[in-house]
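Task 17 of the worksheet. Students: predict the tertiary structure of the chain below and write it out as structure tokens. Keep your answer in the requested format; marks are given for formatting as well as content.
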Amino acid sequence: MPATDTDSVLAAWTAHGVVLTVLMIAAAAGVHWALHRAGRRVAVALARRARATENATEIATRWRRTVERVLLLPMAALWVAVGYGVSEQFPLLRQWRLLVVCLVQESFTEPLFKMGEMSYSALDIMLLPALIVAIWVGMGIGTHLVRLVFFRASAMQEGAQQALGVLTRVLLTFIGTIVVFQYWGVDLSSLAVLGGALGVGIGFGLQTIANNFVSGIVLGLERPIKPGDYVRVGDLVGTVARIGARSTEIRTADRVSILVPNSRLLEHEVVNWTHGDPISRIHLPLGVAYGSDLRQVRAALLEAARSHPDVLADPRPDVQLHGFGESSLDVELLVWTRDPRNQVQLTSDLYFRIEPLLRRHGIAVPFPQHDLHLHAPEIERAAAVWRRQVFPESEPEPQAAAPPAPVGHLEPCVHDHEQELGTPSWDDERLAALVARMRGDDGITIADRRHFLRVHARCFVGSDAVDWLVHHERLTRDEAVALGRRLVERGLVHHVLDEHEFKDGPLFYRFRADEEPTEARSRARAPSVSRRAAAGI
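Model answer:
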């Protein structure tokens, strides 16, 4: 054939090869795109079937990744076929392909070692773990499809589906691995001793992991807890988010995920508020002061409970008296709720409602307190000497010492207020001056005060008056109380309702000088009316 004809044939053949190469690459790109799109649609279709139990976006992403891994092999085979076809169009590429294939084949198929009658090459060493991994992945995909199609159709619970799926995957993978070893000519009986020793070592080293794994299977089959339950495990309180093969994820109220080993859920006490019936009871302990009317306490607590919308009316709230504490009467409010996850907020809301109701009913919540009485004559004598040195003008005139009482006789009780005050010099003039100081600018606080629905004009509190006398007159609290009683006896001070004598407490008193004229006249007429009634007039 002439050279010109040969050149023309080669040129035509080259042009034909270029066109076929472009067409094969374009077709392969189209098939690749179609497989990718089909994989995404299949993932979306599979995700729609699981929307009732899981988040649709998360499961769609999970299925898309699974389908992409499955399509990775056919896509790779597609591009290998395109490369083979392109190399067939050009003689030089074909020669290089054959050379590379021969080198790779010889390097991977050349025997490296022998075990018994079988010889193994590099390809055998690479294929054996690859097949085991492929079996594991394939069994995982198969069990997931079976759980999605058959288990869900049988209305089996989600935890039981997961547990059976894991058991099925492990069993099938174990059987597949044995089949692969037998087909490859590996004598498993020769590895029995080594496998036994290795199994014992792994058993001791991984006993905790094995314990948690078996516990996860038991949790999945027995179902004491399930995703969505509100539980307490020790000091941990939260919602079960996921039960895995080794651990369980619990999400707390702070939105913190904590992984708890499965064995702990079986070996320790677990409080499950939503197991079976979500209705549960909440305890609110409270202490009220001694002397409080328990009927009012019960009414106030029940009013607070019934006013909250999350407290169930049936079963009804209740109040129980638990005992007599050191400083308070111990009561407890019991309420029922349908949402135990909100019990912390419900408890706080009820305490916020209880506090103003107790104040409205005049019920005090005491704090722990102890009374300490000291008797130290040396300290009292030192204080008396100091008082005589600092205030010599206020000391009483010396009196003759009383003769000692004979042994076996008791001294008569002294009820004179002069002895209670420790000084006999409080005459009417000094009492009037004391009242003027108490009503002055530096005196006690005199104001209109409210008790329940009644307002008492221009009065003071007994405990405030005692504090003022202790601070300004250098008296003890007992002496201040005795002096207040002296003021009441002399008619300079009286209780606003004339029901109590002077006391060191939250009682209202008023100076006679601060009363309205009409009120003073009505109080002056009251003794005369009572005297007439006593006389029978």
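Marker's comment: The chain has a mean pLDDT of 76. The longest strand covers residues 280-288.
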